[in-house]
Specification:
It is a single chain. By secondary structure, this protein is α+β, with helices and mostly antiparallel strands. It has 2 domains: 80 residues, Phosphorylase Kinase, domain 1 (2-Layer Sandwich); 195 residues, Transferase(Phosphotransferase) domain 1 (Transferase(Phosphotransferase), domain 1, Orthogonal Bundle). The chain has 12 helices and 10 strands. The strands form 3 sheets. The chain has a 5-stranded antiparallel sheet with strand order 1-2-3-5-4. A 3-stranded antiparallel sheet has the order 6-8-9. The chain has a two-stranded antiparallel ribbon with strand order 7-10.
């Protein structure tokens, strides 16, 4: 019997993970005789016609990156009703698995991982790419090198995806979601830097600034609550790192340092952890970017307030007990889950899938 090869060259040998819409395989490229990782999606088994577009988009966007801190894409396309993405096969573990297994990282490890993540973000931002889902599960630790994974919901700056930027859609992971992301505003590189601040907090303390079992509450805290200081959870952390994280977690995107300034700060802290401060550019006033005419967005609102629809609902409710709070939270949860479902259907936590 003739052996079936995906696209005539990839032998799928062992499934190493599965997500909401597809699978990831350890495979062999028989043409070049090398091991690869192949992410596949059965287009015939997915009811959402936009899935193919999103998957093709992931292939194109990820292929733009050539950094040692992002996964290398070799190939991608459609074979019959199967869409596929061929990437380098990584050996190691995700940052999420490492923290779950060992607990918080040492300060030395944290600074090294944060620096390499920032280098990966720098490469992405240099080509106008915003990751939008920086979190421990999407950071791979492989032989001393750190790589960013899963650009499944990434976006080119200034370009709207009608499937991923609908006004009612919230895209990302609540515990690592920026205020502008949680409130449905357009995102840019500053969104990834907020997530980096959350990531550093998680590495140092074992948990992100805001966490919990209810994504709607976590997302609300991202918008409204003052994040804890790093030193309040880890008193032995460098003061300069505490100051950097505080700036990364600023509600106003313009108050966050850019990728280059963040990288310089991390390198300065690595060189002198005892330094009380690092040089960061002063905050600037912020004006939310105007959405493109082809993709109108809802009226801009401050990040420190709930959206207009929620405010209207609250204003017309007559609270007579805790039931009304539960009702509002349920409505907000439904809105956030609408975006979360879109994320889960279009991205797999590949950092975990490539381990082992």
């Amino acid at each position: 019997m003739t052996e079936h090869l995906l696209a005539g060259r990839y032998r799928l040998e062992h499934e190493i993970g599965a997500g909401g819409m597809g699978r990831v395989w350890r495979a062999r490229d028989v043409r070049l005789d090398r091991e690869v990782a192949v992410k596949t999606v059965d287009l015939g088994g997915v009811g959402d016609p936009s899935v193919a577009d999103r998957f093709q988009r992931e292939i194109i966007l990820t292929a733009k990156l050539t950094s040692p801190h992002t996964v290398t894409v070799f190939d991608g396309g459609v074979d019959g009703r199967t869409a596929y993405l061929v990437m380098e096969l990584l050996h190691g573990e995700s940052l999420a698995d490492a923290i779950a297994r060992r607990g918080p990282l040492s300060l030395t490890q944290t600074l090294d991982v944060a620096r390499q993540v920032t280098l990966g973000l720098s490469a992405a931002h240099a080509v106008g790419l915003v990751h939008r889902d920086i979190k421990p599960a999407n950071v791979m630790l492989s032989g001393g090198r750190v790589k960013l994974l899963d650009f499944g919901i990434a976006q080119l700056t200034g370009q709207a995806d009608p499937h991923l930027t609908a006004p009612s859609m919230t895209i990302g992971t609540a515990a690592y979601m920026s205020p502008e992301q949680a409130s449905g505003h357009r995102v840019d590189a500053a969104t990834d830097l907020y997530a980096l601040g959350c990531l550093i907090m998680t590495m140092v303390t074992g948990r992100p600034p805001f966490d919990g079992d209810q994504p709607v509450v976590v997302a609300s805290n991202q918008i409204n609550a003052t994040p804890p200081r790093l030193l309040s959870r880890r008193p032995d952390a460098p003061q300069a790192l505490d100051a950097l994280v505080a700036r990364l977690l600023a509600k106003n995107p313009a108050e966050r340092p850019d990728t280059a300034a963040t990288l310089r700060a991390l390198e300065q802290i690595q060189a002198d952890p005892a330094a009380p401060t690092v040089a960061l550019p002063p905050p600037v006033s912020y004006r939310p970017p105007a959405p493109p005419a082809s993709a109108p967005m809802p009226q801009t609102r401050p990040y420190t307030q709930v959206n207009a629809a929620t405010a209207h609902t609250l204003a017309h409710l007559q609270p007579s007990g805790s039931w009304w709070i539960a009702g509002v939270l349920a409505g907000l949860m439904a809105a956030i889950l609408a975006g979360s479902i879109a994320v889960n259907l279009t991205s797999i936590a590949t950092a975990q899938l490539f381990s082992g």
